[in-house]
Specification:
This protein has 220 residues and is an alpha/beta fold. The protein contains 10 helices and 6 strands. It has 2 domains: 5-137, Rossmann fold, CATH 3.40.50; 153-212, DNA polymerase, domain 1 (Orthogonal Bundle). Strands 2-1-3-4-5-6 form a 6-stranded mixed beta sheet, with helices on both faces. The N and C termini lie far apart (40 Å).
Length: 220
């Protein structure tokens, strides 16, 4: 195989990582990626987060939706965290246990390995090495849309319930264990939802807003 190719999401195109990859003679193709920031083969999608990015996405729960879709779309998803690990606990006011819980959830609930890099240069170097391993070593071509991983029924149910606001995979499993079916979760009352550990009034409010607000989008 010839020149290495990496697909990069258009929002990452202006980053130092993309520029460094180009200086390494990597063909960087900009695309609007629905999942992942970098795609290096048909099976590997990479989500890149600087420490501030990770903490911001953790605060608004966006990270869990991103990782859920990443895990569902790629056989071997990766999360690259850029910065110093100690920075996680200094960057903003967030309880250490919440951060540790999120990191453990990435690995245990979503099955996504975390690769730490010090800066953009090291991130680019790691992406370059993985791309070389996949494309030259494994003869795998990068594809923007990887085939969806096959899910068994319990995983599909967890994925469905985890689509609710502020619900990660761990809480999804608790809800399903308590209510037995997704239908029962969606039809539960506020009081019964709050019987589940980790489901407070604020989460219930967000869930009910989503389920009960009238759809205002177009019809496609």
């Amino acid at each position: 195989m010839g020149k290495l190719t990496v697909f990069v999401d258009h929002r990452e195109r202006a980053s130092n990582v993309a520029r460094i990859l180009e200086r390494r003679d990597v063909l960087v193709n900009e695309a609007q990626l629905d999942v992942a920031d970098y795609v290096v083969s048909d099976r590997i999608g990479i989500e890149r987060k600087t420490v501030p990015d990770f903490l911001n996405s953790l605060a608004d729960q966006r990270i869990f939706d991103q990782l859920r879709r990443l895990s569902a779309s790629y056989e071997k998803p990766l999360l690259m965290l850029e910065g110093e690990p100690k920075q996680l606990y200094r960057e903003r006011r967030m309880h250490e246990n919440a951060i540790r819980g999120a990191l453990s959830s990435v690995a245990l609930d979503y099955g996504i390995p975390i690769i730490w890099t010090e800066n953009a240069k090291e991130t680019a170097g790691m992406i370059h090495r993985i791309a070389d391993r996949e494309q030259n070593g494994g003869r795998r071509e990068p594809r923007i849309r990887a085939c969806k991983r096959t899910m068994d029924l319990p995983r599909m149910q967890e994925f469905l319930v985890a689509g609710l606001p502020a619900i990660n995979t761990r809480l999804s499993k608790r809800l399903l264990s308590h209510f037995k079916t997704p239908r029962n979760v969606f039809s539960a009352t506020e009081e019964t939802l709050m019987c589940v550990e980790g489901i407070g009034r604020e989460k219930v409010r967000k869930i009910f807003d989503l389920l009960n607000c009238e759809y205002s989008g177009d019809d496609g």
